[in-house]
Structure formats: C-alpha cells, structure tokens
Amino acid sequence: FHVALLDGVTGSGKTEVYFEAIAETIRRGKQSLILMPEIALTGQFLDRFARRFGIRPLEWHSELTPRTRQRNWAAIASGEAPVVVGARSALFMPYSDLGLIVVDEEHDQAYKQDEGAHYHARDMAVVRAHIAKIPIVLASATPSVETEVNARKGRYQRILLPSRFGGQHMPHIEAIDLRREAPPRGRFISPTLAEQIRFAIERREQALLFLNRRGYAPLTLCRACGHRFACTICDAWLVDHRFRQRLVCHHCGFSMPRPHICPHCSAEESLVAVGPGVERLQEEAASLFPEARTMVLSSDLITSIETMRSELNEIAEGRVDIIIGTQLVAKGHHFPRLNLVGVVDADLGLSNGDPRAAERTWQLLNQVIGRAGRDQGRGVGYLQTHQPEHPVMKALVACDRDAFYANEIEMRERSGYPPFGRLAGLIVSAGDRPTAEGFARKLAAIAPIDERIKVLGPAEAPLAVIKGRYRFRLLVKALRNVDVSEYLREWLAAGPKTKGNLKLEIDVDPQSFL
What is the DSSP-derived secondary structure letter of residue 464? Predict the structure, then answer.
C-alpha cells in the first residue's frame, strides 16, 4: 500500500506518467482501475489510451446497456479485463487481482455520492487500496485541501510536475474589474473581453466563454407586477431554457412551456429574463461575432455520451470558433487551437455558505483556464469579477498556488474545519414543515453531551423544499480525533424513530451544504 499524489500543472503530462504505472501493472499480470469524475471525460481519454496500449480499456458507468454491463462485469471478475476506466461505482466491481488504482482529478466534487449510500469515491479508493495492499495514484492540477495537507504531512508521497509538457507556458491571467468596466446594459461580455475574442478569431484561434450556469437565464419575472416564476414543489426559481422553450426546475425536473402572458396579472409581452446562462451567452456571442461558429457545451443539451464525444471532436478539429460552456468543459479536455478563456462571472461560486467555496472556485477556474495554450501559442485567461481584491482572485492572477493553499489551510485549521476537524450532516425531511422541524428539534434536544463535539441547528436548509419535501439540517462539528460515526450511532439509537413520510439522512464528511 502506497499513496502517491501526482501533482502537476494543467498540460504537464500527468496521464502519461500514470500510463507508465499501468504498463508496469500489466507486465505483472494484475488489473488496473482508473476512476474519472465524469463519464463524458472518457472519450478523448479512451483514444489516448488506445494509442498508447493498442487496445481500449473496459468501461464501467451508468450509460452502458444492460447487456454490456453484464459482459463487462464478467470480464472484470474473471480477470480478462486488464484495465478498467469508470465512474465512482467502478470501485466496487469484483476484480480478480487488482494491482493499481488511479483517481484522476481527485479533487472533483463528482466523486461524492449524495443519494442512497453517502460515500466519497476518492476516500473509499484509498481504503480499498489499503485493504488490498496495493498502490494508489491521486492525480490533480489543483489537489483538494485534504490531499494537500496529507502530502505536506508526509502521509502521501508528492510527485511534482511543475511545468507543461513540450515547453508550453502556463496561461497568463488577468482580472477585469466589472465595477470599472461594466458590459453595456443587457450584455454580459465586457468590452475588453469582446476585443480579445475578436483578435483570437482573426488569428484563427479558438476562444472559450465559461459560465457555470445552464439554460438561458436563472430567473424569469413580470415587469408589470413583479411575479417570479418558481417551482411548484421546490424552493427554487424556474430556469429559462430558450432552446427547449421551457421553464425548468434544476432540482426536481418539473418544467412548463414558457408563457407569453403573465399568469398573475395577465400582462402581455411583460416577461423578462434576468441574469445570464450559457444559452444567453451564445446569443450575445452570435450578435457580437456574426461570422464566428459557436457551440454550447452543457449537460442538459447533450442527449448521449456519443453526442458529447462527437461535439468534443468537432472542437478539437477546429470546426468551432467560440465554445460556450459550463463546468463540463473545465477538465480533462485537450483543444489544440484554444488559447483564450474568458470567465464571465468569476464570483459565482463564492456567493454561498459552503466552507469549501473558495477552494472550489480556485480549482474550477484553474482547471478551465488551464484549457488554454496547451498546444501552440501562449494561453491567456480573463476573469470578469466584481471583487478582484478577493484572495482567490489575487492568487489566480498571480499564479500563486502556495499563497492560496497557505491562506486556506490556515483558515481551516483556525476554525476546525476539515481536514483539521470532522463534520457530519443530518438532513430531516417530511411532507410538511411542522413535522420536519419538530423531529429535528427533538433530535437536537437529546444529542449526547461531549465537549469535543458541537451540534449546530436545526436550521432550515438553504434549499428548504425539494420535490415537495420540507428540509431541516443539523451539523455535527467535532475534533479530528473523534469517532464521529460511533457518536452518531449512540445518538440515533437513543433518539426518536422516523415514521410515516419522515426521512433522516446521515452524511459524514459532507461536500454539499444545501
């Protein structure tokens, strides 16, 4: 058993390094597992693997047909599959002789399973490697704070790739202060960014506009009476999806046709879209650069993995000038002609109560800007922000990862947040608010007293209603050396029992606080 952190900047050749480890594992007659956060990432990866090894690895993810799943399961169990690449569920396959685990993009939030059995696939991969007494490689350009601390304390070996393969430079990053250089009214691309995109198109290079918001606009309201379109069973606004001509809830899937009159005051032609989504950005890009070929990459517009892979191939082959995308484009892709990345709203991820908000913003923006300048020319990234003085923005512009990690680790240590403390979330939900709140209060009242543990709440969840269920949260905050699972077992054994439509979910080491 051995944990290695493959810590390399974007474009440094991390994949080639762990391919060598896989080649050695194959020579020893053992199986290798490569975990990836998104099955959409596996397209380019499979081609690259085939070029290196002459054969494609076995895939394991939710998009496989039942027949293919059955066949692949049997091949894994019999040892006929020397290399498996898959999503987090691939970790639980019955490998006949597993010799190596690789977790690519180890920092990615998609490794956390938040429904049914709650677990973090990266952490479970380390546990499985420990049980099997085999090596595990965690690869990332922006390691999670937990992994970074483990490397600093010597628990994990750090293998550093500090520069890009082939002598390519890291992208130059600039902040565009939207307080001084606001886009024209009703627009979201600043004049500086628009000018740089025009230059890129003239040089026959590609530009990427990044906004982590699906649809056309996050809110639709009536100018006449102020009515806002909200989901009927969730505490959330309906998102305007102009391509589909529907208003959609991103939490339960409820949708309705986009009306032409206000259902509240019957005013005609009074409905306006508020804020931008990627579809609205494409409309603006088409207006600013009518000669450019644009493409939107967003999870709700992709009907299958094959569609996704063909669209990524179109971009890689240079048949698109401007890519407009959500976090789907942020990681793992190699676009040879892409040298300009514009982040339309760099502050978007900072405006919530998540203790990992700064870390996630740092990782996401680093990854998306890292798509630029990987092949030829010098990449450049522009961050449109209202707070250029924020520590995350300053660290990004200065390309100073040490300053970011030092600040984030010091803050976590001072406040007792992971990895210097333990957290566990308890989410109580019911069909009506009094039942959910009453049960949560009873639960909090009988929490065992322990000076090493704080029980916070209950409080109404930030997303108070999802799919018609009212939600209250409690948070257990403990010192690092406390056995939180044992504490929860004792507490729940003595607590009130759920009945009827009451539901209690336990999430140890939560990644989401909604």
Answer: E
Predicted structure pTM score: 0.90
Q: Map residue 98 onto helix, strand or coil.
A: strand
- Reported in sequence order, the residue ranges of 164-213 that DSSP labels E, i.e. its strands, are 172-177, 206-210
86/315 Cα distance (integer angstroms):
24
* Number of domain units in the chain: 4
Question: Cα–chain-centroid distance for residue 383?
Answer: 19
Beta-strand pair 503-508/421-430: antiparallel
Listed residue (453, 430, 432, 455) closest to 445, CA to CA: 455
* One domain for residues 181 and 258: no
What does the buried/exposed string (b/e) look like for 136-151 if buried means 16 or more CB atoms within 10 Å of the residue's CB? Answer: bbbbbbbbbbbbbbbb
Measure the CA–CA gap between 494 and 488, rounded to whole angstroms.
10
For 248-260, how does the pLDDT look when each residue is reduced to its tens digit (9 = 90+)? 999 999 999 999 9
Q: In Å, how far from its chain's centre is CA 39?
A: 13
Q: Which domain holds residue 65?
A: 2-165
Give the pLDDT confidence of 310-338 residue by residue, as tens digits.
888 888 888 999 999 998 887 667 788 99
Tokens 């006929």, residue?
80
**Do residues 282 and 352 both lie within one domain?**
yes
Tokens 């986009």 sit on residue: 258
H/E segment holding residue 390: none
> Domain boundary residue among 165, 196, 229?
165
